[in-house]
TrEMBL record:
<dbReference type="Pfam" id="PF00392">
    <property type="entry name" value="GntR"/>
</dbReference>
<dbReference type="InterPro" id="IPR036388">
    <property type="entry name" value="WH-like_DNA-bd_sf"/>
</dbReference>
<dbReference type="InterPro" id="IPR036390">
    <property type="entry name" value="WH_DNA-bd_sf"/>
</dbReference>
<dbReference type="InterPro" id="IPR000524">
    <property type="entry name" value="Tscrpt_reg_HTH_GntR"/>
</dbReference>
<keyword id="KW-0805">Transcription regulation</keyword>
<feature type="domain" description="HTH gntR-type">
    <location>
        <begin position="86"/>
        <end position="154"/>
    </location>
</feature>
<keyword id="KW-0804">Transcription</keyword>
<keyword id="KW-0238">DNA-binding</keyword>
<dbReference type="InterPro" id="IPR050679">
    <property type="entry name" value="Bact_HTH_transcr_reg"/>
</dbReference>
<feature type="domain" description="HTH gntR-type">
    <location>
        <begin position="10"/>
        <end position="78"/>
    </location>
</feature>
<protein>
    <submittedName>
        <fullName>GntR family transcriptional regulator</fullName>
    </submittedName>
</protein>
Length: 161
């Protein structure tokens, strides 16, 4: 599939690359902002995944975007703070943090079990596990194997919260 440009047919991958450049120039996409996923771009442009990947490759070669493996592509430069929608596990973790801050879960109080969190959030086991792992990494909670995950003492909580 091609479109006609001033000098003849323009390959669809170039049409996609140009559309992304136009969105950046118009301020619709900002430095550090995540691009739509490959699948979303396929739908938007009616193109194959291979064609979308070629467009992204062109933009990477021109250093307009960069790609983080297993995350996605972002508008450059690489050192710009990333702007993206939170992933589902981050949303679940944020919800639990809010409950901790509001006092719904006190110090050394057990959090809902993995199966309860799966039911509450309609999420997969892996997603819930990632949310709890993030809270552990940040210092909000600690886990006692075969017992449960508990709210950490305030002095362990992240200072920027």
């Amino acid at each position: 599939m091609t479109k006609r440009g001033p000098r003849g047919p323009v390959p669809i991958y170039q049409v996609i690359a140009n559309a992304i450049k136009d969105d950046i120039a118009a301020g619709k996409l900002k430095a550090g902002q995540a691009l739509p996923t490959e699948g979303e771009m396929c739908e938007i442009h009616g193109a194959s995944r291979l064609t979308v990947r070629r467009a992204l490759e062109v933009l990477r070669e021109e250093e307009i975007i960069y790609t983080v493996r297993a995350e996605g592509s972002y508008v450059g430069p690489r050192d710009a703070p990333q702007i993206r929608e939170p992933w589902e596990f981050e949303k679940i973790a944020a919800c639990l943090v809010e409950g901790i801050k509001r006092g719904e879960y006190g110090q050394d109080q057990v959090l809902p079990s993995q199966s309860e969190l799966i039911e509450q959030h309609g999420a997969a086991k892996k997603t819930v596990s990632a949310a709890v792992a993030l809270l552990r990494e940040q210092g909000w909670v600690y886990t006692v194997p075969a017992i449960g995950t508990f709210v950490a003492s305030r002095d362990k909580w992240p200072t920027e919260s």
